[in-house]
From TrEMBL:
Any Pfam family: ABC_tran
Keyword Magnesium: no
Domain ABC transporter residues, every copy: 39-294
Species of provenance: Muraenolepis orangiensis
Primary location class: membrane
Name recorded for this polypeptide: ABC transporter domain-containing protein
Family annotation (CDD domains): ABCG_White
Region described as Disordered: spans on this chain: 1-36
Superkingdom: Eukaryota
Transmembrane segments: 387-408, 423-446, 467-484, 490-509, 577-599
GO BP terms in the entry: cholesterol efflux; cholesterol homeostasis
Subcellular localization(s) per the UniProt record: Membrane
Record-linked SMART domains: AAA
Lineage: Eukaryota, Metazoa, Chordata, Craniata, Vertebrata
Entry annotated with the keyword Nucleotide-binding: yes
Length: 608
């Protein structure tokens, strides 16, 4: 399509009825009362330095190139308005949203400013100013809508009585038309719950609990059918009308929504190609020579006009040049200049309104931990199949050992020592794996299994003394808890660490005294060392074995006393019993602290 280069001003329209209606709508919006809040984005740019090629192509991998992801983006939005950001995939919509919200990764260089009510937002203030609804709904499947919002409110709001939280949750549910599904479960992939649109509304509701003035939403309609997507956008418009600023990135909205947005921005290759009211948009593109044909979706048409087609180098050059021309025209237009004037006015206003922070009086860490624990437990406990599977997994594991060992003998020649060591090895080696597989839920399940086993007398014929059994159970539980506290470790090498821990620390595969000195030192860092010593002492201390004369293994009867066996494999372990217990249990707070520290470091380091 051959087009003329558009004039740099937005003059009157060409008189089409649809455009007039958009224009009158825009004018009406302008006449509305002065906004209580405004958001200004001034010359925001974001560049990243990236490798020119993949790691297996060494010459290009060694070269670095700078890539401009956002190029001097400026825009201004007032409260009561909803801004829709459009653009083809990879145009920079999410990055712009992240830059506004102060969530951009540290992998690149961000410049420019974000203002609220004419006051510059410092990076550390961003989190307290904006509510950000992510593209995916991170909700616990087995909780009801009301429970989900109540727990979120308990985590977010301090100095709120239970009654106040209840009222807040009811008000937010009413605002988002969720009251009728308040007692329905969220649902998951394998069991039905509320609909996708309702789920999205729960995610938005979670953010509204803190009364934000500015809400940013990254593609809230993705994955929804077009009618539900429309309903979500209309709902967001309603939220904006209640004196909020709503900024939403969106893919392929239906044409009816054209009149719903207060402002529409189009991004392409990191450039803000246009940002203005729907009526202004029609006029602007018409004057650029890019008319929206009748019966066509203006969103699709204008995004097409501004997109860069990279299929061939010729198309890329032509479409890039067209996009560049439109962007230049926009920057020279009255629409852009008036936006800059509004921003300037807000910056230089003598009585600037304070930054409207969200209610951020969140409770103490301990209270939060309690809420998280209750929430997780309630969610897990409702997972009938999951609970059943965990119980049966451990039961089968126990039964397997029972049938494998049948009943332990006291005769050394019949494997009395070997069998016991085998069971202890299993207990130390296998329990962290079940911990990994069951992650957070395992501790409860294990305790239930432990109760069940003791009631059923399934103690596999090991030492019957209840105190010793308690000690044994307490030792076996540690690996579970250690793994449970940091489920991320499951994915990042805990299996390897466990194997290494058994090799170095247990002394089963190679006696600790025979290992090179460096491994002997390393063994002190493994919880397996302490748990093995404890289990060996717990089981073997005070045991006197028999040894039948029919033994064909030479030397099998040399060690027939439990204490001798301990001293042979784990010298001094009997006198270290209490110390070993203390050291073993000190892994819990130590690893908890390590987990918290690694989360904190991750928070700072991980980009996007
Ligand atoms: N930290 C980064 N390092 C390298 N490239 C980045 C980084 N952040 C964003 N990009 C690139 O910038 C471009 C814009 O990404 P962005 O996610 O903002 O696009 P988008 O318009 O939201 O796309 P979509 O609609 O597909 O979600 C993409 O090509 C992305 O790969």
């Amino acid at each position: 399509m051959s087009r003329s280069f558009c004039p740099p001003t937005a003059g009157p329209g060409n008189g089409r009825t649809v455009q007039e209606s958009f224009r009158s709508l825009s004018e009406k919006r302008e006449e509305q009362t002065a906004p209580s809040c405004s958001l200004g984005v001034s010359n925001v740019s974001y560049t990243v330095s990236e490798r020119a090629g993949p790691w297996w192509d060494v010459p290009s991998f060694r070269k670095r190139r700078t890539r401009l992801i956002l190029n001097e983006v400026s825009l201004h939005v007032n409260s009561g308005e909803i801004l829709g950001i459009l653009g083809n995939s990879g145009s920079g919509k999410t990055t712009l949203l992240d830059a506004i919200a102060g969530r951009i990764g540290r992998s690149g260089t961000l410049s420019g400013d974000v203002f609220i009510n004419g006051r510059r937002i410092k990076p550390e203030q961003s989190q307290d100013c904006f509510s950000y609804v992510l593209q995916s709904d991170n909700l616990l499947s087995y909780l009801t809508v009301e429970e989900t919002l109540t727990y979120t409110a308990q985590l977010a709001l301090r100095r709120h009585s239970a009654e106040a939280i209840k009222k807040k949750v009811s008000a937010v549910m009413a605002e988002l038309s969720l009251t009728h599904v308040g007692h329905s479960v969220i649902g998951g992939r394998i069991f039905p719950g509320i609909s996708g649109g309702e789920r999205r509304r729960v995610s938005i509701a979670s953010q509204l609990l803190q009364d934000p003035k500015v809400i940013l939403l990254d593609e809230p309609t993705t994955g929804l059918d077009s009618m539900t997507a429309n309903q979500i956008v209309v709902l967001l418009t309603e939220l904006a009308k209640r004196d909020r600023i709503v900024i939403v990135t969106i893919h392929q909205p239906r044409s009816e929504l054209f009149r719903v947005f207060s402002r529409i921005a189009i991004m392409s290759c990191g450039e803000l190609v246009f940002c203005g009211q729907p009526g202004e948009m029609v006029d602007f593109f018409s004057q650029c020579g890019y008319e929206c044909p009748e019966y066509c979706n203006p969103f699709d048409i204008y995004v097409d006009f501004t997109s860069v087609d990279t299929r061939t180098s010729e198309r890329e050059a032509a479409t890039f040049s067209r996009m560049h021309d439109i962007t230049s025209s926009y920057r020279a237009s009255d629409i852009y200049q008036s936006m800059l004037t509004k921003m300037e006015l807000s910056l230089h206003s003598s009585n600037k309104v304070a930054i409207p922070f969200k209610s951020k009086e969140s409770p103490s860490g301990l209270v939060k931990l309690g809420v998280l624990f209750r929430r997780t437990m309630r969610n897990l406990s409702r997972d009938r199949m999951g609970v059943l599977m965990r119980l049966s997994q451990n039961l089968i594991y126990g039964l397997f050992i029972v049938f494998f060992v049948v009943r332990l003998d006291d005769d050394v020649a019949k494997g009395a020592v070997q069998d016991r060591i085998g069971i202890i090895y299993q207990a130390v080696g296998a329990s962290p794996y079940t911990g990994m597989l069951n992650a957070v839920a395992l501790f409860t399940a294990l305790r239930a299994i432990g109760d069940q086993e003791s009631q059923d007398g399934l103690t596999v014929g090991m030492h019957p003394d209840s105190l010793r059994f308690l000690c044994f159970s307490a030792v076996v539980l540690v690996p579970h808890i250690i793994v449970v506290h940091n489920p991320n470790m499951v994915n990042s090498g805990v299996a390897l660490l466990n194997i290494a821990g058994i090799l170095v620390g247990s002394g089963f595969l190679r006696s600790t005294q025979q290992m090179p000195e460096v491994f002997q030192w390393l063994s002190y860092l493994t919880f397996q060392k302490y748990s093995c010593e404890l289990l060996i002492v717990t089981e073997f201390h005070g045991l006197n074995f028999t040894c039948s004369s029919s033994s064909i293994i030479p030397g099998a009867c040399v060690l027939a006393q439990g204490s001798e066996i301990i001293d042979q494999g784990y010298p001094g372990a009997q006198s270290r019993y209490v110390l070993d217990f203390l050291l073993l249990y000190s892994f819990l707070p130590a690893l908890l602290l390590l987990g918290v520290a690694s989360f904190k470091i991750r928070e700072r380091l991980v980009a996007r």
